[in-house]
Design goal:
The structure is a single chain. The protein has 518 residues and is of the alpha/beta class. It has two domains: 218 residues, Rossmann fold (3-Layer(aba) Sandwich); 278 residues, UDP-N-acetylmuramoyl-L-alanine:D-glutamate ligase. It has 19 helices and 19 strands. The strands form three sheets. Strands 8-19-18-17-16-15-14-9-10-11 form a ten-stranded mixed beta sheet, sandwiched between helices. A seven-stranded parallel beta sheet has the order 3-2-1-4-5-6-7, with helices on both faces. Strands 12-13 form a two-stranded antiparallel sheet.
């Protein structure tokens, strides 16, 4: 499903008008969807006091349509108009015909009526401002939202429903005005907006529902950002023909783990195995091999010479470079540490790759070591998937974490283009970007995954999928999707406290099985 900026949505609206799809038609569909999703969310609405705040633009029109439907279904609805509509406004006339109580702010001296309506409302529909140009809230808008925020704090049980986006949320970046009213439910219209998948805006949107309002799918064909869906994930799964053997599903070499991070090797290798890689080989310090062999019984091993116990020697790069031609993917970085010998080992591999090297998946310490090398992306030309979290991305780009997080989508897209690598910017609503400008967003923000080792599982899953001969962009995206869905399943069973990275491993194939059954 495509994700559109405010300007892209306006262009789509113009295309719809040129195709004979009227604003009236779209607004009717939008308002009905808002009413339907509100009813679905709150349950029985008969007799429920509902207050719709209608702004001056199309969001106000959507709110009027929603108010009419809710009134017809038995709610007690009042629309508080922040400005006059045109004399022939059909939606205003229909709302009145259907018994909706209409109150105009200009006639409500000292907000006397508004105070009473807010204090008794069980449902509040925010139809004040939509995806128009973001600007500081002031004047009447600021006053109304301040009052609504105060009442929501006093009575958190009020259900706040946002039309398209919460007022005061930047649809493109997710930045918010201090008076932005947090929603319990956001019904985003036509197509989702990127600001709903970037904090702090994501934290103000509540549950998100994407409403089909009748815009033809073809109008968004040129949009280069999409939200990953189960339908897409199913289509991206590698084929598993009955005639296959282990070689059919690829050979992956994992250079991971060290004395202090033995578990990273286990988690990364099992992540790859659990998504279907045919052969996983673990290359790690020789003294760690006996320890890991008792737990990793399904992988093969390439024990490496050590600088000291548990730390790979720089000279081991020769052994890795010698066996690389036998593998489709090289995963490097998980739990390697920052020892000086490890730094030299990693750089001597990455900057001496053969002409026909396998694809690379670089995580954790490999990324941190690269960030110390000016212009690192110009020094090796292999096909690469980078998997940084916000801190690692900040180091790679030489900017602050706050700058990375302020617009994660564009940060990842710009980095992928400059580096000519696939970039996975991890975190809540992970972003995957490729060098050509396309990007995908994960609709998942699970605090249960904020624990040591989950990134190792993800890196392994991505590498394991890449080994199965799907594109690196698809492998990175599908790995993120499967990892997030496994996290959701574990969270649903255990809750978001106390989840372990290893809990994800047996669930990954169950997620894949569920996708195949769709």
């Amino acid at each position: 499903m495509k994700v559109v900026t405010a300007e892209q949505m306006r262009n789509i609206d113009r295309m719809a008008a040129q195709a004979g799809i009227t604003t009236e038609f779209l607004m009717e569909n939008a308002g009905r969807s808002v009413a339907e999703e509100t009813r679905n969310y709150v349950g029985n609405i008969v007799g429920r006091a509902s207050l719709a705040i209608a702004g001056p633009g199309s969001n106000g029109g959507d709110a009027l349509v929603a108010a009419r439907y809710l009134q017809d279904w038995g709610a007690e609805v009042t629309v508080y108009m922040l400005s006059a509509r045109s004399p022939g406004d059909k939606n205003l006339a229909l709302a009145k015909e259907h018994g909706v109580n209409i109150i105009y702010s200009e006639k409500d001296r000292k907000f006397t009526k508004l105070k009473s309506l807010i204090s008794s409302a069980e449902i509040i529909i925010d139809g004040i401002l939509g995806t128009g140009k973001a600007r500081p809230l002031e004047g009447l808008f600021k006053e109304i939202l301040s009052r609504l925020n105060s009442e929501k704090l006093r009575r958190p049980e009020i259900t706040v429903v946002a039309v398209d986006i919460p007022t005061g949320l930047d649809a493109d970046t997710g930045q918010v005005d201090p008076d932005c009213l947090p929603a319990d439910l956001t019904i985003t219209l036509g197509l989702p907006k990127p600001g709903l998948y970037n904090f702090p805006g994501a934290g103000r949107a509540g549950k998100k529902v994407i409403a089909d309002i009748g815009i033809p799918v073809g109008f968004s064909n040129d949009i280069r950002t999409e939200l990953m869906t189960p339908k897409w994930a199913k289509s991206a799964l590698p084929a598993r023909p009955a005639s296959a053997n282990k070689g059919s599903f690829g050979r992956m070499l994992a250079v991971v783990g060290s004395e202090n991070y033995i578990g990273a090797a286990y988690l990364a290798c099992m992540g790859a195995a659990r998504v279907g890689a045919g052969v996983v080989t673990l290359a790690t310090a020789r003294s760690l091999q006996p320890v890991l062999a008792s737990k990793l019984t399904e992988v093969t091993y390439a024990p490496l010479p050590e600088a000291r116990k548990g730390i790979i020697s720089r000279k081991a790069s020769e052994a890795i470079l010698g066996i690389l031609p036998y593998y489709r993917v090289l995963l490097m970085g998980c739990g390697l540490g920052q020892h000086i010998n490890m730094k030299e080992f990693i750089k001597s591999i990455l900057f001496n790759l053969p002409g026909k090297s396998p694809a690379l998946v670089l995580d954790a310490d490999a990324l941190n070591i690269l960030s110390e090398v000016p212009g690192w992306w110009r020094k090796f030309k292999a096909d690469v998937i980078m998997t940084p979290h916000a801190g690692e991305m900040a180091r790679l780009l030489g900017i602050s974490i706050e700058k990375v997080q302020s617009n994660r989508l564009e940060t990842a897209r710009k980095a992928a283009g400059e580096w000519q690598k696939v970039v996975v910017l991890k975190g809540a609503f992970t972003v995957i970007a490729e060098p050509g400008g396309h990007a995908r967003i994960s609709d998942a923000a699970n605090p249960g995954l904020a624990t040591a080792g989950t990134g190792d599982v993800l890196a392994g899953a991505i590498a394991g999928l890449a080994a199965q001969s799907i594109s690196l962009y698809d492998a990175a995206s599908l790995g993120v999707y499967l990892h997030a869905m496994a996290g959701e399943k574990v969270c649903n069973e255990f809750g978001d406290t106390g989840m372990l990275a290893s809990d994800l491993l047996p669930v990954l194939p169950k997620v894949i099985k569920g996708l195949k059954a769709l």
